[in-house]
Amino acid sequence: MIRIDELLRAYRLGYFPMANPEDGKIYWCQPHKRAVFPLESYTASRQVKRVIRDRQYTVTIDKAFEKVVGECAAPRKNDSGTWISGEIAEAYILLNRMGVAHSFESWHDGELAGGLYGVSIGGAFFGESMFFRRSYASQVAFDRLVFHLRSRGYLLLDAQIMNPHLEKLGALEISHEEYMLQLHRAMKKKIVFLQAGEK
């Protein structure tokens, strides 16, 4: 299993783990370009605002962390592999029990419809993965995450590697040098992700 102290140190230095889908071997990644979400300028799309206004989903925090990780680890439609190996999943489940990793879940009629999970250190939240089973479910969970991070004073929402979905949500790609500057500032903050009784 991944050593937890090594995993946390990696985040503070700008790395994150990914498993090779073929053999499960874990690699420490530090991309030359980094996807981040500017917390202050993020705005949900009109469709997501409508879904939120219509209260199509109920969003919770850390109610189903292991289920969210399991759904995120499941292979996508056009891909038989996953970068979230069993070893990686176990590490994040332990981080959740330690109060370091968190999930946001969207529920529809009592069923888990989508969600995301990530790691909170200092004033940074490192988004790991998201999934959905119903339209806009993950985006509603993401909107709640951004609202939560803003209210707590977070400085950095790291999305790791850019893809079309993240770009559609409003992610920007920045250089490694700029990312490390933002990370260094965020690590100086001391923020409690959840107060007692907030779940």
User: What CATH architecture would you give?
Assistant: 3-Layer(aba) Sandwich
| Secondary structure category | alpha+beta
Strand/helix succession: HEEEHEHHEEEHEHEH
Largest sheet: 7 strands, mixed
Number of domains: 1
Residue share in β-strands: 25-35%
CATH superfamily: Leucyl/phenylalanyl-tRNA-protein transferase, C-terminal domain
Q: Mean pLDDT score, rounded?
A: 93
Number of helices: 7
Biggest sheet: strand arrangement? 4-5-6-7-8-3-9
Number of strands: 9
Radius of gyration: 16 Å
Note the overall shape: globular
CATH third-level topology: Aminopeptidase
Spans of at least 5 consecutive residues whose pLDDT stays below 50 are none
CATH class: Alpha Beta
Q: Helicity range of the residues?
A: 25-40%
Span between termini: 28 Å
Detailed description of the structure:
The protein is α+β, with helices and mostly antiparallel strands and 199 residues long. The chain has one domain: Leucyl/phenylalanyl-tRNA-protein transferase, C-terminal domain (Aminopeptidase), CATH 3.40.630. The protein is built from 7 helices and 9 strands; from the N terminus they run H-E-E-E-H-E-H-H-E-E-E-H-E-H-E-H. The strands form 2 sheets. The chain has a 7-stranded mixed sheet, with helices on both faces. A two-stranded antiparallel sheet has the order 1-2. Helix 3 runs antiparallel to helix 4. It is globular. The two termini are 28 Å apart.
Write the layout of secondary structure elements.
Layout: H1 4-12, E1 16-19, E2 26-29, E3 33-37, H2 46-53, E4 58-61, H3 65-73, H4 86-97, E5 101-108, E6 111-121, E7 124-132, H5 137-152, E8 156-160, H6 164-169, E9 172-175, H7 176-187
Helix pairs in contact: 3-4
